[in-house]
Amino acid sequence: MSIDQTLLDRSGAKCELCGAEENLSTYEVAPSDESIVVCQTCKEQIESPEKMDSNHWRCLNDSMWSPVPAVQVMAYRLLHQLRSEGWPQDLLDMMYLEEDVKAWADAGLTSDDEDSIVHKDSNGTILQEGDSVTLIKDLDVKGANFTAKRGTLVKNIHLTDNPEHIEGKVNGTQIVLVTAYLKKSN
Questions:
Q1: pLDDT single digits (tens) 78-105
Q2: Where are the beta strands (DSSP E) in the chain?
């Protein structure tokens, strides 16, 4: 398969995701007609998610900052698929996409991804958006110079993309709380 010369020039004859220089081909980033240059390893893992090697995708730490929207979209989607590993969630939290690029990236995500995120408290009880929780441990709040005391009630919580974190207000300050240190209130 011949690689379009424009794509090859844009990529510097390297995979736009991991930087490999061999076995390059084009990969169309659906649902648009834009393409990126990928190596055989990246292409195989994109097309067969069960073969994904999360360590290979640490390269997304660099490629997510590409000025090419199609590369940004693929980096976002791959990080989204791998977010259960922990480190991809940190990159997703840092990543900025223009509104239209974010819509394009989200259009390629499967809807069951969102349903697979389940937030559970320290007792294994499933948490829902708007629930109230109670802290079961004193927590030092970094940057706010106070300690959230055990027994503090946090009302109207907000769920995040990370199943181990929720957001809520303590002492009038919006903070991220680790679900292992709280329990659902009735």
A1: 998 888 888 898 899 999 999 999 999 9
A2: 24-28, 35-39, 133-135, 139-141, 146-148, 153-154, 158-159, 165-170, 173-178, 182-184
